[in-house]
Amino acid sequence: MERKDEAEEAKSKVSVIETWLRKHRLLYVGATRHPFIHSIRDGSVDVSSFKRWLEQDYIFVRAFVPFVATVLLKAWKESFDATDLDVILSGMASLNDEFAWFNKEASKWGVSLTNVAPQKANLDYCRFLESLMSSEVEYTVAITAFWAIETVYQDSFAHCLEDGSNTPEELRDTCQRWGNDGFGRYCHALQSIAEHHLEKASDDVRKRTEAAVLDVLEYEVAFWNMSQGDT
Ligand SMILES: Cc1ncc(CO)c(N)n1
């Protein structure tokens, strides 16, 4: 009887991440339902905005690779669960494909990815990533920030592929890149890992992780704003 109660309780317990998503709903929606994403979804997107996004995101992803490498290193040192390493490694492997994709996409749009100057919002975000690369930043903070970064793109681009969307054919490849079901499952795997570590974390680490997630959401909003030329 007691066992069943415990099982029931575990089932109804709201996870740490779910609690944060509810608490910071407006910011989360701001990051995942940005006007730039709406413009892709309804087909009104401005081509120069899309090209700016593509150029700037390439620079961001270049900085994202060493960040993910440090998450991998922390997983190896701090997690006893081997699946953490497998999931992070699969993310790294898909970043390798992503560079090939960026090059293909750039030539399709007549954009050059060399000699692009990073804009302020991008520099700020890359600097934030760099701060998370420090060995002083706990694995729990880093893996949860990683989950948030990937999930914003997954949620945003999946929205452009839903029934009723009017995404132009030439942008579907971009939306598929992050909006596909496999990427969705990968984000869920990251969420489970992050949640597992958050459940065990001290209040202090939890607080700093929540702050890092909020930072990610704000940087993502600023990144979309920059793509639209609003900064
Ligand atoms: C700005 C930004 N956030 C998240 C992702 C997902 O990898 C990306 N490529 N770029």
UniProtKB/TrEMBL annotation:
<dbReference type="InterPro" id="IPR004305">
    <property type="entry name" value="Thiaminase-2/PQQC"/>
</dbReference>
<feature type="domain" description="Thiaminase-2/PQQC">
    <location>
        <begin position="22"/>
        <end position="227"/>
    </location>
</feature>
<keyword id="KW-1015">Disulfide bond</keyword>
<dbReference type="InterPro" id="IPR050967">
    <property type="entry name" value="Thiamine_Salvage_TenA"/>
</dbReference>
<comment type="similarity">
    <text>Belongs to the thiaminase-2 family.</text>
</comment>
<comment type="pathway">
    <text>Cofactor biosynthesis; thiamine diphosphate biosynthesis.</text>
</comment>
<protein>
    <recommendedName>
        <fullName>aminopyrimidine aminohydrolase</fullName>
        <ecNumber>3.5.99.2</ecNumber>
    </recommendedName>
</protein>
<dbReference type="Pfam" id="PF03070">
    <property type="entry name" value="TENA_THI-4"/>
</dbReference>
<dbReference type="GO" id="GO:0050334">
    <property type="term" value="F:thiaminase activity"/>
</dbReference>
<keyword id="KW-0378">Hydrolase</keyword>
<dbReference type="InterPro" id="IPR016084">
    <property type="entry name" value="Haem_Oase-like_multi-hlx"/>
</dbReference>
<keyword id="KW-0784">Thiamine biosynthesis</keyword>
<dbReference type="GO" id="GO:0005829">
    <property type="term" value="C:cytosol"/>
</dbReference>
<dbReference type="GO" id="GO:0009228">
    <property type="term" value="P:thiamine biosynthetic process"/>
</dbReference>
